[in-house]
Every structure is written in structure tokens, then in C-alpha cells.
Amino acid sequence: MREVLDDLVAAVAAGRTVGLGTVVRTFRSAPRPAGAAMMVDADGRAVGSVSGGCVEGALYELATEVAREGRPVLQRYGISDDAAYEVGLTCGGILDIFVEPVSTATFPELLEVADDVAAGRPVAAVTVIEHPDPAWLGRHLAVRPDGFSGSLGSDRADHAVCDDVQGLLATGRNATLSYGPDGQRRGEGMRVFAVSFAPQPRMLVFGAIDFAAAVAQQGSFLGYRVTVCDARPVFATPARFPQANDVVVDWPHRYLQAQIDAGLVDSRTVVCVLTHDPKFDVPLLEVALRHDLAYVGAMGSRRTHHDRMDRLREAGLTDDELARLSSPIGLDLGSRTPEETAVSIAAEIIALHWGGAGGRLSTMDARIHHEPLADAEHEAAAQELGSS
């Protein structure tokens, strides 16, 4: 939807009604991902693409009709459908496309969403794409890290969807979510599509070891853009880290500082230091702990940890800066293998982001979903939340 947002806002702000088709679900080898969009303006101009040319002709006609009649439609295009074959979707994929009329009346939150996007503030737009009550179809919710605006149809549905979409927004992902008709966690009847306007957060993994491959896989699964960095070119190769988006050969502290200076690291970035070698990890942690990062964890034994802390104090780091370090890295899961250790690290990142204490839910009465912790002192805040 991002690719049509400027044109969509301009048309709606001018008082026009636009037909908007958004890919909300894909199957098999669909040509475009969920979130791809195409709009048809009142003057017949088309902007965007949902399939790279396969179904745009049919969607153009449908979007024009929807804008004129004002009734949203959830349309499936797939190779098994005669109509889909006729419009050229022969790649074997299936697309679910929600086509809706968009105007100031049908989507009053749109201009606020566009303002957030322009300012770089994370926001997600949620649309009801399926519901037994036709009056709910096409209703919208604008979800932000601190709440929401608009309504899908009931307070219960709004809060249930907001909780889940805030999780998607934290990782910059789009998704179709299913609920009962009134937002019940169990049951079916209502489906919503959430499109997140936020770049993927980054995971920087330092140390090209077998544990790094497992951590990169977990990071990718959680929605991070993963970079593996090591100063040794013989180990830092794309073939060894297929789940990483980038594999970099550089001294870790030099690479991190360059990324910070270039504005490519932000408060959502997580750093996993797996080198457990003082000549690499101490200079790196000096840089990492002095910047606003979501998480900094370092691997090593208790002895390695104490030695590392002494070296960092000698380097001039304060107690407050050192308190931001998660070392030894991960939660106490009894992990042994690289894959189990990666799950432990991922679990700690999730727990500290959302304020979880890492205990078993079956032994707790506290709410399952937490608000994200904005404070840099993640560990102290998580412990306080868990003991309340």
C-alpha cells in the first residue's frame, strides 16, 4: 500500500472516492506479497500493481465498480478459477484481494496515517475484510505503539485487534488475522488485514560461528533484517549464513559505529555479540552500550562475563551503561545446542521488548499481552513488571 499512498491521499484530500485493491493473502507462487496495492482514481487513472500484470485488467474494472457503488468486495484470483485463468494468472498462485471505496467518509483516519508515515512514526492501518455483518466490512483502525484511533465496530474487537497488530507493527509485518464476530480470540467470522508502515527492525549478529547461524535464523523468523558481521573473511560468507540478509567482513566495533553514523541503527535494533573474544567484543560493546539500542546481549561463561565487565569498566563505561548489557545472553531454558541457544536468545529479546518476565504462563494470573517497554533499562523494568 505504501507505493500508492501519496496518490491515494491526494485523491481523497481532493474529495474524490477511489477504488483501492489490496492483496490481503497469497498462496503458492503468487507474484506480489500481501500489502501490494493498486488504486483507480475517479478520473480512471490506475496507480500501483498487485500481480505484475496478471490480474490488473480485471481489478481495474472491479475497483471502478466498487468506487461507483460503494460496496467493498473480497475477490480471489487463482489458477483454479476460470475467471482468473482468463485474466492471465497462470503462475499457479492465488491472490485474495480486498477492493474497497476509499474516501474521507469511508476511511477518515487515512490522512492521519499518512502524516505518521511522512514523519517516520510507526503506524498500521487495519481493515475489516470479512464479517457476517456487511456493515462492518471496510471499517478501519489506525494502530500505533501507544494505542489506536477509529473503530472496527465494537470496543472488544478494537482492543483485541490493537493488541495483536501492535506486535506486527513492532516487526514491520503485514498479516491477515482471524477472530470471532465481536473480536473473540476463539471462533471465526471476522478477518482483518493489517498493513504496517514501519521499516524492519535490524538484528546485528557479531561473530561468524555456528551459534550465529542459528540466531540469524531465529531473527529472520521474528521479522528482523539480519546482518552477520565478522572480521575474518574465511568465516563470514553468505554460504554459511543463508538466513542473513547481509554478511559483512569488518571489525565489529568499526562496522557498528559506521552504521550508527549513517543513521541505519535505531532504538529497535538488537545486537547479539557471540564472539566471546575480548579483542572483538570489548570495543564493540563500548560502542553498543553507549547508544540507544533495543537490546545488547553478549555470549560467554560466567568467568568470561566477569572478565568482560572488568574490561568495560576500565574502558570507562558507567554502571547505568553496563546495566543495559544482557550477559550471559539469553533466558534460562537449559539450552545446549546452537538452535536451543538461539531460541533462548530470541525469547529474551521478546520478553524484554514486551515486558515479560520469562516465566510459565500456566503459573501466572497476569495478562498475557504486555505493552512494549520504551525505557532503556529493560531488565529492571521487566523484573518490576513481573513481580507486580
From TrEMBL:
Q: Name one Pfam family in it.
A: XdhC_C
Q: Which InterPro entries match?
A: MoCofactor_Util/Proc (IPR052698), XdhC_CoxI (IPR003777), XdhC_Rossmann_dom (IPR027051)
Give start and end of each XdhC Rossmann domain.
Answer: 203-349
Q: Could you name the domain of life of the organism this protein comes from?
A: Bacteria
- Note the Gene3D superfamilies from the entry: NAD(P)-binding Rossmann-like Domain
According to the entry, every stretch annotated as the XdhC- CoxI domain falls at 12-78, 118-180
Q: What is this protein called?
A: XdhC family protein
